[in-house]
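Z., the sequence and structure:
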Amino acid sequence: MKELYKSIVGAILVAVTASAARSRTGTVVFNEIMWMGTIETSVDGNTIGGTNDEWIELRNTTSDTLDISGWYIVDAEGDTMITIPQGKFILPYGIFLIARKDSGSSKINVKPDLTFTSNIPNQRLQLELYMVAGDDTVLVDVAGDSSRTTPLAGKNQTDDRRSMVRRYHTDPDSFPKAEDGTLESSWFTAIYSAGWDDGATERGTPGYPEPALLRVVPSGDTVVFRDTFTVSIRVEDAIDLFSGNFSLKFDSTALELIEVDTTSQRGFLGDSSVMLEATFGDSLNVGVTKLGGGGALGTGDLALLTFRALGSDMASSPLSLGEVKLRSATNLRSLLVEAVDDTVTVVTLKVLSTSPQSGAVNVIASAPLKVRLERSPAEAVTEAKFRISGISGTVTYYPSAHRAVLSPSQLLSGDTQYTAILDKSLGMESDYTWSFTTSVVGDIFDLDDPTDQDPEDDYVGDGLVDGDDLAVLGFFWLTTSDSPGWSPLPDLNKDGKVDRSDLEILAEHYGERSSRSSPKLAVPPSCIVLRPEGTEFEV
């Protein structure tokens, strides 16, 4: 019984160990597999390609040159398909191409590092890469899952053949570590094409890593007129990148290039890297390189540019990359790269609403002014940008609501027309202005919102100083600007509190009506009597 127990435990441990080993990802991985072959064609009477025009790529994911002599690949049945002879190496981050045919009879135009004769299975595809370390055999990587009828990726149609390509970590700190090769999520069907004869329609990149992306990344696709914004030129999934050169074309009637940060590449290429740049009208040419050392990996910025938006409303400018060249630290070989352009649209800043509205009358003279914008302005909304001529005040901007509030530091005159101004530098072609007329001083009963609960309220009174206004002052009596639910309306002397001084001002104007007041019975003036001592009052 004891021996049986040991046998069972041993079998479990072997099974667990084998399972873990089969999903192991090593320093060399299966990078790309053309398991279906190519579309057969005839050139000058010679047959090129076909279902046996298969190939396998191995990829070195380290910065070291690796000796792969004696390594071998087996299929799902455990049969050895390929044995790598002595004297074979993979350069840092390099590709080792193993093909059924040499470049003369294949549709690929890259000379393979090794040829083989076995068929790559189209069903129950699972390949295992082993290395020999002394007397031990070590599983390095696995591609595919033999429990599945069809391969994990790739396409095998009469007129469309695409390879099965390995997926790598998107985390720059772990790139280019491969995902688990036994999972479907670790592979995708080829999108790009390189390394083929002219006219070949197959997709895959024999002899090349998948292309790096060089992407234009503006800080926003929509930019307010007069505003500045940044554009990053970002490389993604780069392997062993040593240098780069590109041009960026833009519409100089819509955008003005105002700065090129010539140190922005250092975060990715290192402190010893340099940048040279030149502008020719509406095109910028940039060259960057490391000064010695190895190549860079992963994702990072090669340039950071600052533009100013000049165009009129809805003017747009493409940001188009051209003349792109990326080179590897290994012998300065060219790297495949796909350029990804973008477009920026210039818009003028639009005012959605104002409080008070343009043309409003009987506006409460102690009320703040408010404006709501469509989007963030080109510059900070300050007292110089949002103002009433001749009136001082403070401006507060609420970014989440795109709302600015101007609080005059003095009480506006009663029954007087004022003009509010938003400066064009905020992102408009001209200053935005609107006018309103105040009510008499002391008219503080907001017809729509007497206790001031609505931040979008218009602060319009009835043009008469009467008991309604006295009620508002009483409701906020002895509150300050720090009190919850504070209202600036009864603070008639603008000192940040509602007290006897404000009551005296209201008493002085009690019974007055504006020139645009409603036909409401007026209260006779001088009907409020203040006691000399204390805060009591009577009507």
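The two ends are 107 Å apart (CA to CA). The longest strand covers residues 228-249.

Let me know what you think.
H.
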